[in-house]
Design a protein that fits this description.
Layout lengths: L1 H24 L3 E5 L9 H5 L5 E5 L4 E5 L10 H5 L5 E5 L2
Antiparallel strand pairs: 1-4, 2-3
């Protein structure tokens, strides 16, 4: 029984350290929108918990724009939701 508890504890610790490493690795990155690939489906806007992305209407089409880049933590949640490869992580300026 102790083996089960120890293995569960190891898995939880690895998961926590993996998330910390991902955050530290992406600290100097921010999300960027490739407007030509954006279809305006709003999946990424709904997924972003920091409210970084917003829908914008141009004279030609509706697409996503980065409204608050300073709030972006580069977590990658919106990247996983985008089916059209319209988002990418770039270095902060």
């Amino acid at each position: 029984m102790n083996v089960v508890y120890i293995s569960i504890g190891i898995v939880v610790l690895l998961w926590i350290f993996g998330n910390l490493h991902r955050r530290r690795k992406n600290r100097n990155k921010v999300i960027c929108v490739v407007e030509s690939n954006c279809s305006g489906c709003q999946c990424c806007v709904k997924r972003c918990t920091r409210h970084v992305l917003e829908m914008v209407t141009d004279e030609t089409k509706i697409h996503v724009a980065v409204k608050y880049p300073y709030k972006c933590t580069a977590c990658g949640d919106c990247l996983g939701k985008c089916k059209f490869n319209a988002l990418k992580l770039v270095e902060r300026i």
